[in-house]
Amino acid sequence: MPAAIAASAVTRRFGEIVAIERLSLEVEGGEIFAIVGPDGAGKTTLMRLICGALALDEGTLLVDGIDVRRQAWRVQAAIGYMPQRFSLYPDLSVMENLRFYGNIFGVPRLEFAKRAQELLNDFALAPFTRRLADELSGGMKQKLALACTLIHSPTTILLDEPTAGVDPVSRREFWRILYRISAGGTTIFVSTPYMDEAERAHRVAFITHGAILSLGSPADLKAHLAGEVVEITTQQRPKARRALRDEPSVRSIEIFGEALHALVPSAANAIPAIEARLRDAGVTDAVLRVIPPSLEDTFVARLSS
Amino acid sequence: MNWRRVWTIAVKEYTQFFRDHRTVISTMLMPLIQVLLYGYLSSDVKHQPTIVWDLSRTAESQQLLDAFTNSAYFDIRYRAHSMSDVVRHIDDDQALAGIVIPPDYAKLLHEKKSPEVMVGVDASDATAAQAALAAAGAVGSSVTQQLQIQQLKLEGAAPSGIGVDVRARAWYNPGLRQEVFIVPGVLALVLQFTMTFLSMSTIVRERELGTLEQLIVSPIRSSELMIGKMVPLVTIGYINVTMILLVAVFWFGVPVVGSVLLLYFTVLVFFFATLGLGTLVSTIAKTYIQAVQLIQLFLLPSMLLSGFIFPVDAMPKLMQVLSYFVPLTYFLTIVRGIIIKGIGVDYLWPQILMLLALGLAVFTTAVLRFQKRID
Description:
Strand content of chain A: 25-35%
Number of helices of chain A: 11
Oligomer: heterodimer
Shape of chain A: elongated
Number of strands of chain A: 14
Strand content of chain B: 5-15%
Low-confidence stretches of chain A: none
Helix content of chain B: 55-70%
CATH superfamily of the largest domain in chain A: P-loop containing nucleotide triphosphate hydrolases
Order of helices and strands of chain B: HHEHEHEHEHHHHHHHHH
Largest interface: A-B, 31 and 24 residues
Shape of chain B: elongated
Number of strands of chain B: 4
């Protein structure tokens, strides 16, 4: 069975700017694959290339073994794509939106009725079928957009930053739904700017400047982190950060909320040095402890090396 | 061509159109307002306020003034007592025309001499002035003729039959009614406006909403999307045509001499050009505001060049050449030809063909530019 998505040496330019540069990756059927990266890394461009909305300049892209460049329409019939902005018609009702996409994707009428009911129940939208999309809450709009993407039972869905601008509770609910869809065998290719979301995926690719920086399961990525993370809790974070920037035993130092994370090759060697530096700088309230690295730590480590 | 997808788009467009009450009202009211405004404002410049300084004050001078009133072009509202009275009334726009009858008017007539009557017209508005001047001239010659006949009768002679009888007839619009000419033109003008605007906004709006991106990544073809979007607009266009025709016939009494069927067919040809134009603009503009500005750039000159107001034949050569590229030019000739003159395909085929050619060119360019890609 071919990979759900197989990209090899994919390149796309916009004039002088290279948006995606010789990018290769393979997404297996049924997995949740997340691409993470800062704004402008090329996440949206990659999504659009995969679904054939943009033409690629070089390389090959196969979706379920179908060449996107040659048979975009076959790919488009087999996948579901949810662009960054919820693409719903605000002046159509929940049911009208669903029926519209059902018809566009040629879902047979009997099958549509069954599928729509299933999705509406699953996404807790059943009581609102007659409500206009414009009058739904952000979380509900997002679920309706996902339902429209799934109405033709695609084998793979591409979600471009689906949780941008959605409250944390709705985000959690959204991910529960994604797990259910994935359990049903649908491949999910999702982009996100949030590290904690990427952590929930089966596999993650970090991309910056249109190329993959690292790729693997969250556990693998963390395990391959060369070094340890020392958390420094202090009220004087900017001062502490300045003091540790020149410390040779610290590879990188970043502020994470209430604390600083120092990436060090060996915690045993670095901790006394860090303590000495902080004392010299007059930071007296620091509490140090070694913590398991988060995905963000590994990303920062990769970026700084 | 998958008709289910075309139908789906059309149903969606209908639903959205009729759900947006403001657009429905403006699309339905705008043609009515335009046709009523143009219809009333274009009516002839009759009943102009007039001031008279009658120094003769005789039965003869009153007879002359009656002739002016009966022409319907002059409404004698003021009596002046001096020349400065006359000038002042015209200066401050109370009167458009001033008639001055000399003191010896009746006396000269009896002496079989020609008295001079002065008619002054405010020519700031050239159209109104021309009508008044022509009417004054006509009043003068008809009064002269009457007086001569009277005179001959008094002398006991029968009026001789000698003289050139120029029988000028106004064909097609015997009443020389402006609205008969203008109202069919308004039909064309309104259609051009509604069709380009609606087709432009239906596409630009989807691009701004982001739904176009979703459609691009669906199995729908560009042609299916375009046809699905155009079908409801054609319906709306036909509703507009029917409304305007009803107002023209039953309100303004404009007779539709030619074939209504042919008119409805040529309207369809005109839709091609206008819908294509709106679509073309939507492929160039990135936002709705940009699109509106772009379309205005075309709509106003096309109205001026088309012959809606100024006859194309009277334009400088360069303007005439430009007008050949404006679909409205051909459509105006067609609409006026059918409604006013009652002519058919045998006369209008060159215009219909040109309109079709322009329409096809614009529409094809639009479809080609409207690619199923984001860039």
